[in-house]
Structure formats: C-alpha cells, structure tokens
Design a protein that fits this description.
By secondary structure, the chain is mainly α. Among the domains are: 43 residues; 48 residues. Helix 2 crosses helix 3. The chain is flat, with a radius of gyration of 30 Å. 0% of the residues are buried.
Length: 135
C-alpha cells in the first residue's frame, strides 16, 4: 500500500520536472530565434565580403552597365587579365539570365495554369503531386 501512495507523488514530481524542462526549452528556443538570424546575417556578410574582388581605389560606385573604355583599360591593368576576364564572364552571364527572365516567367505562368486546369478536373491525382494550399 505504501508503494501505491508514493506513485501519485512521483507522478507529480515527474510532471513538475517535465514542466521545468519544457519552460527551459521554450527559453532556449526563444534565445535561438533571437540570435540565430543575426548570426546567419553576420556570417553571410563576412562570406560575401571575403569573396568580393578587391578593386582599385579609383573605382566609383554606380551601375554595372557598359563602362567606358578608359575605365576598362585601367581596371585591366590593376586586376590582371585573368580576373578581368572572370568579371566580364560574370557580367555576360548575369545579362543573359536577365534577358531570359521573361521567357522563364511565361513558362512558369503556363505551368501554373496547367496545374489549375488539372485541379478543376475531377480526376485522381496522387497526393505527392498536389500543391499544398496556404491560407
């Protein structure tokens, strides 16, 4: 009988201990939510800054459009031919991606309309291929 009397007390102790653990976890989660985004931002910023090429002091901020030819020759001397070629290649890739963006958007809209047409039909579609509705 003594064992039966100690059961409710131990259950209450376990319950209290679990509640303490839950509150500790909640505090830790709250701290992580407050600190992790800032840490990720700082890490990303430092990585981007480390990968940024060092330009000459004479470089001016502005758009990355077609620079004038005088600036190209001065940058070429400072950066070296290989780095200059890499920068030009990157600029070309970016401009091609921007030029292809309307085509990609058109295809995306077509695919979305096809999906909507399939949703309006009363055919069986496997759940793995259905979109999740967010509201």
């Amino acid at each position: 009988m003594a064992a039966a009397g100690s059961e409710p007390g131990s259950d209450a102790d376990e319950l209290g201990e679990l509640e303490c653990q839950v509150t500790e976890m909640a505090v830790k989660i709250q701290e992580y939510r407050a600190t992790v985004p800032e840490q990720l931002k700082n890490a990303l910023t430092s990585i981007i800054e480390a990968q940024r090429p060092v330009l000459a002091d004479g470089s001016e901020p502005g758009t990355s459009g077609d620079p004038n030819s005088g600036q190209i020759t001065s940058d070429k001397d400072v950066l070296g031919d290989q780095m200059f070629q890499k920068i030009n290649l990157l600029r070309d890739k970016i401009s091609r991606n921007v030029a292809a963006l309307p085509i990609v958007l058109k295809r995306l809209k077509e695919c979305m309309s096809n999906i909507d047409k399939l949703d309006s039909q009363n055919t069986f579609i496997h759940p793995a291929f259905k979109r999740k509705r967010t509201s």
